[in-house]
Amino acid sequence: MIVAVALFAVVVVAGGLVAAVALSGKHQRHVADAGYSSTYPTTTDETTTEASTTATTSATEEPTTRPARTTERETPTSRPPAGPRSVVATGDNPLFGGADYGLQNVPCSLSRWATDQSSVTRFFQSGIACLDAMWSRMLGAVDLPFRTPNLSVPRSLSESSTPCGSGGTTTGVTPFYCSANNTIYMPMDRIELDVWGNHPGPYLSILAHEYGHHVQNMSGITEAFANQRYDAGADSAAGLELSRRLELEAQCFSGMFLGSASVSGGSVDKNIYNEAWNAQDRGDDYARNGKRDHGSAKHNISWWQHGASKNRNQQCNTWLSPSGDVS
User: Fold this and answer.
1) Where along the chain do its domains lie?
2) Cys-Cys crosslink for 313: which of 32, 52, 101, 282, Cβ 3.0 to 4.6 Å?
3) Which one, of 297, 320, 315, lies nearest residue 252 by Cα?
4) DSSP 8-class letter at 28
5) pLDDT digits (tens, 9 = 90+) for 292-324
6) 98-112, pLDDT tens digit by residue?
7) Which residues make Cβ contacts (< 8 Å) with residue 39, sequence separation at least 6?
8) pTM of the predicted protein model
9) Could you give the CA distance from residue 32 to residue 155 in angstroms, rounded to a whole number?
């Protein structure tokens, strides 16, 4: 499955779960709400690990006590994988189980941004480390699995073979996350270096959007979405609305990360945060194929800003929002 990023202009939407976020000018500075923090259930372990291990017994292992003579050899009982498991659900996913669940404010240490391929790669690698630090805690706290995504930063997508195709339906900015191989693709020719140049905020928000799709994949939201869209028909009105819900939720998750990181005392300062805030002018308004599968620029902006301002998982739950808020 291909998921492409959508970035947008400063507009505010109210309704459903989306709270109004006022913006009087495109380059106005914004900061996260005072006291921006979150809570979630405590766990024994500070971080989580992959849920891919399986308990097995060696065929040569001798039992402590040898049983009496038998005429049949017992067949070992198969055991389910150990650790957290994804929950195939959208609106009622455990990620949305508590009204106060959100990202902890963890300081982020970013590599210095520059527009050459090596610097871009290091910047995105450091961004993923920051995203891992926040989302691993959140997913582990609600007993969902976690693993870090892979990253590919080719000069162009033609240099990279992916099981998800070329990615993207919008012009310009079309990085994407491929769930088939757990990889975020950030091709150098697709991230609009000629538009934002030496301003790292927009690029960090793109990465955080694609990472949002990774969170959806780990939690089980992506699988539930794929099942629902298959039943509805991918290009039907219902199927396209489901796609918009998926994309707008990733936008909201991106905003959550930037908002939380900006008040954590690390590399994500107010300049980077404000650059990201003002760089969300993308959406179906710019789609080259005419599909309404990412949401309007208006709603892309409002969902990102809502996540950045509120830092609450439930507030990013697009699956329970009215259709008018995901158009």
Assistant:
1) 2-20+84-326
2) 101
3) 315
4) -
5) 999 999 999 999 999 999 999 999 999 999 999
6) 999 999 999 999 999
7) 98, 100, 101, 102
8) 0.78
9) 34
